């Protein structure tokens, strides 16, 4: 029995009372609003940065190589853990010298399908995004020059760049580091979530409560900011449009998109996050201070929807969001090439050495 | 032509001048002094902590799970990187709150074959060893109680402990965390190095220079501390027995084994490290301040052998050591189970958040 949602749907969709018809109409509406995760992201990068096996192999090695950071201890995977939903599951990331980043680390899974990267969308794609953390003082704290010298000191890397960028007169470049990282990350997609199966026509892929949650999600406003292939990540919206949450959730000093556009109207505007695999990526929001998915839905209900969702609908939407967890990527840990005597040494503040251990 | 070493061997072994005979005698001597890495370490743990598929699967997940640390950001793999020779390739490890450890992180590869663990051998096996870094304030800074609460809050972990320790009335325990970590690490062995092929009878497995290096290694004293299956790791020896290296290499305040035995004779005594995969594990010595393998051999030559090795022999021994690099383990990155609302939160000092990033 699916009366709980289908009657609502029947009303919302202006259909007759037939539950079967409501089921069909709901699937059709969902198919208009969302798209399944495709089996490959090749089409997205085909024109700009084609996904070749050579770039994927190089990008994976770079993704896991801590020598991308000045201290040679922080890799992309440190804050975008491929075994933990593609992020680090802490409020804001810890970087060089144990500094804290200002915003919650976004998942890299399916990020290739987002309209832009970073919470404020200041990077238009993953290639541009990759250059940020490597250079950020609070993250990897490295420089393009030092990274290029590191990679050039390791023959295997030089060969891999030559193979990945055969037509480039200067293959071992910071640009090509970012290019191969983008291509590797484009392989980190999570198809076949229950919701994907539903969108492909399997009406039994979601539980009854998840169907009720989808119904509320589509008919009570969530879908306005969370739609498309990533169920979000496609546009920019003000956080707290109806009622501003507390400063712990929406810090006063983070103006979001306005820091990019320098437009007053963009104050506290952020790119809506993808909700793909959201149950794996707590804590939530750019401030990373909400640990419970149910609480996150409740915060959105109050701040964005004027509490349009009933308590039951908050539960139902939370259940629906758990249907967005897809097949996690299969990752073989790369064996990285060994340093040489000409490889730059790690830049680590020379603190006194503690006691115990090793 | 292998005259370079075989004449030396002929003399050292007191054999006739037949190069073939010298080749045979050298292989026989090597087979007496060393053993190839076996295909499995099952025999080592068979009586005490049998290697079951359930323990291996659980141990691998724990090995990569940063929630073993108080900050939930540091995993075993952070300092024992399976893609970089099983260590972190920095002088001394960086732990909780960016603290520095006192000694260089040893590789975990083939560690199951060592006589004991840690540079001073204070842990008799990998099960006991695993409990150290998890609790060390300068490393993971966690407590057994907090870790057990974390694991008990995640149903998948509870099920995996139940399956790995079916006869244990309290499967989710700190002891069993260590037990499964030991079993997983026992799978991280590196057979089939050129030297292993040589020990198995392939006289062409080593280059001529590596054969000359092996000859010097066996006949000029290196083998006294570096023998057996791990080419080291089997006993305790004074560092600087003939001439003490500088304090940058042998710090005055690290008494080594004497801190365990409280015996004056053990001052500056350390467990000889395994030389397996040594070309992958720079920087060298417990202080981790020597980056070049050739320099490390030269330091040993001066401090332990009274400069018995000629400059050419230092080069030859260095070449031989590169024949100790085996097949690196194939590791599939585990997908870790998601936290729940009852999982303890990460313990991270609340530093002000930096600018930029994400």
Oligomer: homodimer
Please tell me how large the radius of gyration of chain A is.
Answer: 22 Å
The beta-strand count of chain A equals 2
Q: The CATH topology of the largest domain in chain A is what?
A: Cytochrome Bc1 Complex, Chain D, domain 2
Q: Structural class of the secondary structure composition of chain A?
A: mainly alpha
Ends apart, CA distance between termini of chain A = 61 Å
- What is the count of helical runs of chain A? 14
Largest sheet of chain A: 2 strands, antiparallel
Classified by CATH, the class of the largest domain in chain A is: Mainly Alpha
Subcellular location (chains A, B): Periplasm
GO molecular function (chains A, B): cytochrome-c peroxidase activity; electron transfer activity; heme binding; metal ion binding
Keywords (chains A, B): Electron transport, Heme, Iron, Metal-binding, Oxidoreductase, Periplasm, Peroxidase, Signal, Transport
Cofactor (chains A, B): heme
Topology, element by element:
The structure is a homodimer of 358-residue chains.
Chain A (H helix, E strand, L loop, with lengths): L2 H11 L5 H15 L8 H4 L7 H12 L11 H4 L46 H10 L8 H9 L2 H10 L9 H12 L8 H6 L8 H12 L16 E3 L19 H4 L7 E3 L21 H13 L5 H11 L37
Antiparallel strand pairs in A: 1-2
Helix pairs in contact in A: 1-2, 1-11, 4-8, 4-9, 6-9, 11-14, 13-14
């Amino acid at each position: 029995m699916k009366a709980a949602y289908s009657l609502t749907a029947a009303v919302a969709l202006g259909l007759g009372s037939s539950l079967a018809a409501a089921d069909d109409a709901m699937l059709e509406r969902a198919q208009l609003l969302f798209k399944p995760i495709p089996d490959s992201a090749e089409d997205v990068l085909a024109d700009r940065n084609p996904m070749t096996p050579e770039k994927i192999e190089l990008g994976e090695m770079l993704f896991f190589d801590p020598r991308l950071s000045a201290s040679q201890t922080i890799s992309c995977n440190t804050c975008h853990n491929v075994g933990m939903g593609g992020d680090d599951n802490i409020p804001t990331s810890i970087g060089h010298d144990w500094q804290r980043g200002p915003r919650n680390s976004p998942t890299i899974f399916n990020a290739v399908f987002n309209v832009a990267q970073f919470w404020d969308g200041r990077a238009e794609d993953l290639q541009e995004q990759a250059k940020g953390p490597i250079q950020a003082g609070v993250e990897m704290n490295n420089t393009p020059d030092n990274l290029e010298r590191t990679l050039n000191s390791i023959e295997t890397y030089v060969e891999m760049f030559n193979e990945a960028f055969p037509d480039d007169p200067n293959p071992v470049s910071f640009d090509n580091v970012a290019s191969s990282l983008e291509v590797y990350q484009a392989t980190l997609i999570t198809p076949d979530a229950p919701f994907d199966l539903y969108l492909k026509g399997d009406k039994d892929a979601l539980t009854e409560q998840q169907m009720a949650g989808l119904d509320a999600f589509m008919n009570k406003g969530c879908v306005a900011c969370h739609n498309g292939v990533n169920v979000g990540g496609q546009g920019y919206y003000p956080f707290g449009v109806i009622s501003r949450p507390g400063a712990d959730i929406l810090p006063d000093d983070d103006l979001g998109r306005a820091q990019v556009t320098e437009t007053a109207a963009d104050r506290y505007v952020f790119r809506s996050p993808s909700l793909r695999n959201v149950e794996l990526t707590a804590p939530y929001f750019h401030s990373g201070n909400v640990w419970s998915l149910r609480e996150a839905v409740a915060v959105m209900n109050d701040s964005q929807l004027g509490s349009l969702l009933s308590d039951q609908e908050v539960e139902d939407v939370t259940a629906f969001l758990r249907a967005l967890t897809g097949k996690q990527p299969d990752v073989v840990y790369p064996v990285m090439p060994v340093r040489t005597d000409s490889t730059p040494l790690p830049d680590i503040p020379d603190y006194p050495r503690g006691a115990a251990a090793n």
